[in-house]
Amino acid sequence: MKKNPQTELLHAPRQAPQYIETVQPPLFRASTIIFNTTSDLFNRHWTDRYDYSYGTHGTPTTFTLADNIAQIEQGEYCLLTPSGLSAINLVNSTFLAHGDEVWVPDNIYGPNMEHLYNLQKRYGIQVRVYDALNAHSVEFSAKVKLLWLEAAGSVTLEFPDLVGLVKKAQQANVLSVLDNTWGAGLAFNAFDFSEEHLAVDMTVHALTKYPSGGGDILMGSIVTRDEKLHHQLFRMHAIQGIAVSGDDVAQIQRSLAHMSLRYKQQAQTALTLVNWLKQQPAFAQVLHPADPASPGHAHWLEVCQTGQSAGLVSVIFKAEYDLAAIRKFCDSLSLFKLGFSWGGPISLVMLYNLKDMRSLATPHLQEGLLVRFCIGLEHPQDLIQDIQQALQQLK
Fold first, then answer.
1. Distance between CA atoms of 272 and 275, rounded to whole angstroms?
2. At what angle do helices 323-332 and 380-392 cross, to 10 degrees?
3. Local structure of residue 54 (DSSP, 8 states)
4. Has residue 306 got a pLDDT over 90?
5. What is the pLDDT of residues 114-156, one digit of tens each?
6. Rounded Cα distance, 296 and 174, in Å
């Protein structure tokens, strides 16, 4: 049957072979996925490991990255989301309902806390706050459904009593979910982190950070070893129409090959800075889990037995330095750029007032304003010189 040229263009009789072996996997962009037969259409189920039915459910591109993230974190199942925060929100909306309680550390990622308080206000979910350094500060009732963990904690970088907290959750039959962005699946194995082979039930990971590595892609993931939990998450994932761009996925997939190298280099640079920062008289406290003087260091030693840690360092200025002085310090930095996030090639700096961020007492922290350094790939001595010249502006 002779076809119009326009139709022939859409249904080309000649197509190049679809598969060759390349260094990077092929990129699939798809909303609609074509079924060859009605048998292919109906002899499938959304619980299939690779359900090719519609672009939001997955393509070879998205499933490949998901499998790789699961492998890095030593889990079994992985879902991709458009950002780390969307992964967090998916967990909360999947496992929390009216009347449920959720426990969160006082040093939790701020937007997660804000989201949970919004759920509390609108839907009757009860938010309880605990001290991440003290597992005894958590008391589970029959209403508790979820325990949030962060290792290390947001901004102040306390490493939690992960062993004690997860033990308590398991004894109470409470689901535990770890924000694993700091560890990135490299600092420790969240699914087997003690001699007793303790494991969290789920991890969330802002792939925006170390997996991307470029400071240019937003994405998140949820990893678990439990098929039932994965299916619960996947159903909510589908109901909410959550999807990620194949192009973004391909960019992160490309960066995974050197993620561990970047992680190690940035962590080593951070340790070099820690040793120098502790000698500077302007700082009342230097915070980094691998430093023996930092809160939660013993817990870090217990869990991160490889000695790895992320490239984040926070400092608390002595109380004599007011907000205007700290702003001047940050504005005087040259290599450190003022911006949120981390894990990219450029070092970043951000300032915080802890009094506006914590609801519990923090006797382990000194009084003063906090600045967080997110280490990039610059030479450590250049970063030290940059901080040094900015400190000179305060004199």
1. 5
2. 140
3. B
4. no
5. 999 999 999 999 999 999 999 999 999 999 999 999 999 999 9
6. 23
In order of 136, 249, 311, the CA distances from 193 in angstroms are: 20, 29, 21
Residues 62-110: pLDDT tens digits? Answer: 999 999 999 999 999 999 999 999 999 999 999 999 999 999 999 999 9
- 21: Cβ–Cβ under 8 A, 6 or more apart, which residues? none
By the 10 Å C-beta count (0-12 exposed, 13-18 middle, 19+ buried), 395 is classed as: exposed
Segment 326-332 mean pLDDT: 97
How wide is the angle at C-alpha 249 spanned by C-alphas 245 and 253, nearest 5°?
170
How far is residue 50's CA from residue 78's CA, in Å, rounded to a whole number? Answer: 12
Q: 162's torsion region: left (phi>0), alpha (psi -120 to 50) or beta?
A: alpha
- State the amino acid at position 174 in one-letter form: V
202-206/220-224 β-pairing: antiparallel
Is residue 49 classed exposed, middle or buried when 0-12, 13-18 and 19+ CB atoms within 10 A define those classes? exposed
| Measured distance CA(48)–CA(28) in Å, rounded | 19
Helix orientation angle between 227-239 and 84-95, rounded to the nearest 10 degrees: 110
CA dist 345 and 259 (Å) reads 11
In whole angstroms, give the CA distance from residue 23 to residue 390: 44
Residue with tokens 């199942």: 77
pLDDT in tens, 347-377: 999 999 888 888 899 999 999 999 999 999 9
Query: Six-digit token pair at 171?
Result: 């004894």
